[in-house]
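Quiz preparation item.
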């Protein structure tokens, strides 16, 4: 098992071009030296870091002497505080499980905390529906095509702002950031 410190050090060597190459390797299931899903988890956080966000790398939460949560990361940008859940299930779409898990984690956080679920592929319809019914715990969904777009344009923080505005103004938790239009 590789330490999280090694992953942090390795990912922080990558700039945008390196992240785009890693993304292609993740999609092709060719990431030697990374445990399953870890390359994707760290890629997402590094993209936010490169774009100016403050990032908290994956960590565990202890309460009363027991580990109660494993958090894939946290992002702070433009007044937004976000918990991150990243899922790479191969070619499968992501179901409701990570959304339900994140919703429970958000219930233990200040009311303004936002959940972000990133998946390499896409979400099932029940997962999308659950994200809508999780409000007021905002859980914003990011699919693989949106991540690809963010990496190509090097603007993931701006896209987070678009997604958040769509949620505030229209109650959309799965707004496609590639549209980048005023709703």
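Solution:
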């Amino acid at each position: 098992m590789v330490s999280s410190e090694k992953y942090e050090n390795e990912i922080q060597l990558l700039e945008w071009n390196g992240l785009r190459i890693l993304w292609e390797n993740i999609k092709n299931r060719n990431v030697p030296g990374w445990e399953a899903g870890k390359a994707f988890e760290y890629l997402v956080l590094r993209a936010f870091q490169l774009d100016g966000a403050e990032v908290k790398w994956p960590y565990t939460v202890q309460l009363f002497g027991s580990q109660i949560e494993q958090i894939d990361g946290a992002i702070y940008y433009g007044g937004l505080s976000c918990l991150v859940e990243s899922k790479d299930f191969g070619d499968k779409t992501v179901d409701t499980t990570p959304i339900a898990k994140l919703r429970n984690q958000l219930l233990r956080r200040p009311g303004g905390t936002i959940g972000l679920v990133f998946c390499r592929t896409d979400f099932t319809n029940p997962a999308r529906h659950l994200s809508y019914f999780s409000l007021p715990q905002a859980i914003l969904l990011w699919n693989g095509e949106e991540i690809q777009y963010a990496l190509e344009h090097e603007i993931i923080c701006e896209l987070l702002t678009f997604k958040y505005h769509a949620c505030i103004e229209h109650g959309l938790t799965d707004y496609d950031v590639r549209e980048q239009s005023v709703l």
